[in-house]
């Protein structure tokens, strides 16, 4: 153990008593020890130069390596410790001349790193100097972009599977007008050009270019209900993961991706752009649920300005009364856009209704869960009655379910 200045003085006092020297000599010895302590501490008073090798971008829930080491400075004995903010973990977080381990976070957003605590001990081992060294970069914790990119690549290479179905070939049909030509028996009658047919006296049809350059707009509810826990995360976490998967899939398919996030008002608005996946993820990575209810009407009116697109709304439908504003406003979207409403199913609620009760507590728990799921089913039925598709998936299955619905919508030429 390295002696502290107080311990060194105590040792010096004991030495004075043990040697039996006179008062004058004893005082001189104590002064000499004190001077040695001060000199020893002053020898390490200058802070060392520390190198921070810490990732600046971190996917949520995935550990990445980090290293902090001293690169320059008079170093005799060193003790280092890296404090962490509440939602970030350094393992290990202490060492001598270096700290090397992994950093992990389960909460999205920007995390400021506290100064690194460094304790330098002088060459005599009598005095020490404590330094707080700032300079570590802030860490931006993103959604699970690793899984999102893997899912997008699976779609692009034809390896994506969902519920036993596999995507093959080109998705969708052309919507950009190219030319008018004679009608063929294999043509869709919906594309007959009637004015040209009447003018030329023979069936004519419109020919379109196959265009995969479509708009996909993710609309993210950041109201209070999205703060509800979902396993180890929140409903908003699951939604943001799905947004990342959709945005990167749109990049792979040549579509334009955008996002609108809203709470009491519109929080983020990224217009659909080509190769827009990175911009979309950057815009939503630090979203947090607000305390109030979401303003669906304001968000939908913002989205309604865009040209026809596939709009995927991420929200919560467990509270039937809170979903009424959604039901009243969704026609604003469905009149112009192809709309999908995506919700996360709470696995705990499903498990509570499926597990045989063993006590009164279990019965009451199952009753509450059944009521909540019944409310969600009622809201889902009313949404579907308005001609809007819904996607329900448990936990981590929401990104794949949303991508499957996106592919099916394109295959049916609805957008």
CATH top level of the largest domain is: Alpha Beta
In the predicted model, the low-confidence regions spanning at least 5 consecutive residues are 7-19, 163-173
Beta-strand content: 25-35%
Distance from N terminus to C terminus (CA atoms, Å) equals 71 Å
Strand order of the largest sheet: 20-19-16-21-22-23
Shape: elongated
Tally the helices: what do you get?
Answer: 12
Task: Tell me the radius of gyration.
Answer: 32 Å
Topology (elements, then pairings):
Blueprint (H helix, E strand, L loop, with lengths): L4 H15 L3 H20 L6 E5 L3 E3 L4 E9 L4 E5 L6 E4 L2 E2 L2 E8 L3 E3 L4 E6 L6 E6 L5 E4 L2 H12 L4 E2 L2 E2 L9 E7 L11 H7 L3 E6 L5 E7 L7 E2 L2 E2 H19 L2 E7 L3 E9 L2 H8 L11 H8 L6 E5 L5 H10 L1 H4 L3 E8 L1 H8 L5 H26 L3 E6 L3 H14 L4
Parallel strand pairs: 2-11, 16-19, 16-21, 21-22, 22-23
Antiparallel strand pairs: 1-3, 3-7, 4-6, 4-9, 5-7, 8-11, 9-10, 12-13, 14-15, 17-18, 19-20
Helix pairs in contact: 1-2, 3-5, 5-6, 5-12, 10-11
Could you walk me through the main structural features you see in this protein, from its secondary elements to its overall organization?
The chain is α+β, with helices and mostly antiparallel strands and 415 residues long. The protein has 4 domains: 5-42, no CATH class; 49-142, Sandwich (Immunoglobulin-like), CATH 2.60.40; 145-170 and 212-411, von Willebrand factor, type A domain (Rossmann fold), CATH 3.40.50.410; 176-209, no CATH class. The chain has 12 helices and 23 strands. It has helices at residues 5-19, 23-42, 145-156, 194-200, 235-253, 277-284, 296-303, 320-329, 331-334, 347-354, 360-385, 398-411, and strands at 49-53, 57-59, 64-72, 77-81, 88-91, 94-95, 98-105, 109-111, 116-121, 128-133, 139-142, 161-162, 165-166, 176-182, 204-209, 215-221, 229-230, 233-234, 256-262, 266-274, 310-314, 338-345, 389-394. Strand 9 and strand 10 form a beta hairpin. Helix 3 runs parallel beside helix 5 (235-253). Residues 7-19 and 163-173 have low confidence and may be disordered.
């Amino acid at each position: 153990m390295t002696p502290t200045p107080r311990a060194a003085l105590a040792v010096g006092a004991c030495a004075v008593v043990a040697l039996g020297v006179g008062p004058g000599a004893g005082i001189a010895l104590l002064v000499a020890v004190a001077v040695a302590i001060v000199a020893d501490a002053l020898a390490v008073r200058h802070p060392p130069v520390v190198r921070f090798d810490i990732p600046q971008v971190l996917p949520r829930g995935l550990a990445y390596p980090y290293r902090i080491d001293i690169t320059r400075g008079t170093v005799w004995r060193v003790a280092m410790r890296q404090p962490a903010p509440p939602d970030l973990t350094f393992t290990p977080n202490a060492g001598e001349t270096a700290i090397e381990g992994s950093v992990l976070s389960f909460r999205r957003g920007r995390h400021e790193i506290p100064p690194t605590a460094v304790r330098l001990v002088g060459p005599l081992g009598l005095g020490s100097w404590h330094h707080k060294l700032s300079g570590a970069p802030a860490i931006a914790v993103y959604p699970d972009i690793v899984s999102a990119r893997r899912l997008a690549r699976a779609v692009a290479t034809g390896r994506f599977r969902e519920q036993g179905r596999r995507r093959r070939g080109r998705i969708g049909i052309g919507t950009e007008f190219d030319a008018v030509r004679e009608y063929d028996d294999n043509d869709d009658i919906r594309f007959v050009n009637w004015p040209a047919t009447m003018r030329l006296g023979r069936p004519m049809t419109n020919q379109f270019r196959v265009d995969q350059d479509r708009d996909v707009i993710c609309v993210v509810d950041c109201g209070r209900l999205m703060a509800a826990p979902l396993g180890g995360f929140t409903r908003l976490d699951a939604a943001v993961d799905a947004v990342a998967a959709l945005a990167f899939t749109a990049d792979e398919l040549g579509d334009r991706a955008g996002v609108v996030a809203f709470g009491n008002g519109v929080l983020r608005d990224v217009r659909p752009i080509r190769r827009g996946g990175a911009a979309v993820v950057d815009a939503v990575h630090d979203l947090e649920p607000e305390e109030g209810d979401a303003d669906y009407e304001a968000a939908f009116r913002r989205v309604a300005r865009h040209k026809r697109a596939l709009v995927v709304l991420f929200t919560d439908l467990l509270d039937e009364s809170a979903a009424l504003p959604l039901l009243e406003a969704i026609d604003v979207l469905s009149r112009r856009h192809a709309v999908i409403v995506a919700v996360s199913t709470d696995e705990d609620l499903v498990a509570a209704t499926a597990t045989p009760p063993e006590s009164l507590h279990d019965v009451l728990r199952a009753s509450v869960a059944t009521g909540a799921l019944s409310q969600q089913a009622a809201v889902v039925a009313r949404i579907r009655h308005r001609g809007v598709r819904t996607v329900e998936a448990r936990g981590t299955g929401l990104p794949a379910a949303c991508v499957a619905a996106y592919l099916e919508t394109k295959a049916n030429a609805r957008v």
